[in-house]
Amino acid sequence: MTMLSRVLGLARDMVFARVIGADALADAFFVAFKIPNFFRRLFAEGAFSQAFVPVLAEYREKGSPAAVKALIDSVAGALGSVLVTLTLLVVLASPLVTGLFAFGFWLDYPDKFAAASDMLRITFPYLLLISLTGLAGAVLNSYDRFAVPAFTPVLLNVTLIAAALIAAPWFETPVFALAWGVLVAGVVQLLFQLPFLARIHMVPSPRVDWRDEGVRRILKLMAPAIFGVSVSQINLLLDTMIASFLPTGSISWLYYSDRLSELPLGVFGVAIATVILPSLSRQHAAEAPDVFNRTLNWALRMILLIAVPASVALIILAEPILLSLFYYGEVITARDMAMATLSLRAYALGLIAFMLIKVLAPGYFARQDMKTPVKIGVIALVSNMGLNIAFAVPLHIYWGIGHVGLALATSLAAMLNAALLFSGLRRRSVFTPEAGWLRFSVTL
């Protein structure tokens, strides 16, 4: 299912390249799309999921089905109330939020700024819908119903492809069809999961109870995790903010190259992380450290088996891959592809680290240790900011490729993040390499 979703995601980006290319309006759409997706990683796939799943696993292990249902109801109410409030605020203050994330648009490109602000009003409510979808997916994953959440992103990609190919020609400004497609996709994804929740009798009946013990525990775990688990996303948003000052097309070049580098990360890294977090949480709750260690060993081997050849392939074949997928003459030019090739190679350098983070971080989250990833995240984030300046500024001034410096800085910060996460697990004896690692490394 994950493979199907990612292949369709690639098809979606190919359609985007054909319909909107890499011009000013494309830059504006990608900013309007990135902002709710950034918050989605916090509420739907990131800190919320990492805090919710271990608590839910503990309730399932030690509590009754009624207690589990009560927890889900309370969490749905709390999450929904926060997101409705946030959505209303962002929709009302769309220019302010757009200026915060793409200050360069406001300063130098007023038309891009206005378009991004208008589209953000349409795309941001997607956050509420996809976060509730993420809640449903976390529950289904905890009940070992992995296929349904894995299939759900397919609906996003199908809806956006339909919006680009069918709806866009009817719009005076075709890119706005994609913004509406994002919102419709959120509705479709949420409605799709409800019947499967009904089969396990876990459809939420939201109630707001901030005093609920489970909600308070999740909030306590979530507060530091919001930062720790989302460092890579914050890094990417910092790239977007800086790229908004760079020449038109920079954000689109980063988008296309980042999306391609994320293909192996999304197909394998996210899939393995999704499977191991509930397993590690149950093993920690059952006080089975040997099984916990065995699961981490397996996950790390699987990640390296995929990440190393994928990274090498993307570095060597970046240009022909991009040309074959996204080159459409007048809409996407040869210069666009040359620029995207450079940033793809920079992102590919960090692919191994990005994928390792996906399986190392659950080693902390499953043990309800959110503080350590936060400390590591702070170090990585500060390093990324410094590296952005060190690489992007001179590359832009002397060679006009500042966006490559942003991608390179993100990769180096990810390497530091992964190294610190790994050393932390080793120091705490949470992870101990099993026999066979030397032979595996030689074979790899």
Short structural summary:
The chain is 84% helix and 0% strand. The chain is built from 19 helices and no strands. It starts with a helix and ends with a helix.
Written account of the structure:
- By secondary structure, the chain is mainly α.
- It has 2 domains: 1-226, no CATH class; 230-437, no CATH class.
- The protein is built from 19 helices and no strands.
- It has helices at 2-19, 24-45, 47-62, 65-92, 94-101, 103-108, 110-123, 126-142, 147-167, 175-199, 213-228, 231-243, 250-285, 289-326, 334-349, 351-365, 371-399, 402-427, 437-443.
- The longest helix is centred in the C-terminal third of the chain and has 38 residues, at 289-326.
Broad structural category: mainly alpha
SSE topology string: HHHHHHHHHHHHHHHHHHH
- The count of β-strands is 0
Compute the CA-based radius of gyration.
21 Å
The level of helicity is over 70%
Task: Tell me the major beta sheet.
Answer: none
Count helical runs: 19
Mean pLDDT: 87
Q: Which percent band covers the strand fraction?
A: under 5%
Distance between the termini: 27 Å
Large-scale geometry: globular
Low-confidence stretches: none
- Please, how many domains? 2
Layout of strands and helices, then pairs:
Layout lengths: L1 H18 L4 H22 L1 H16 L2 H28 L1 H8 L1 H6 L1 H14 L2 H17 L4 H21 L7 H25 L13 H16 L2 H13 L6 H36 L3 H38 L7 H16 L1 H15 L5 H29 L2 H26 L9 H7 L1
Helix pairs in contact: 1-9, 1-13, 2-3, 2-7, 2-8, 2-10, 2-12, 2-13, 3-8, 3-11, 3-13, 4-5, 4-8, 5-7, 7-10, 8-10, 9-10, 11-17, 12-17, 12-18, 13-14, 13-15, 13-16, 13-18, 14-15, 14-16, 15-18, 16-18, 17-18
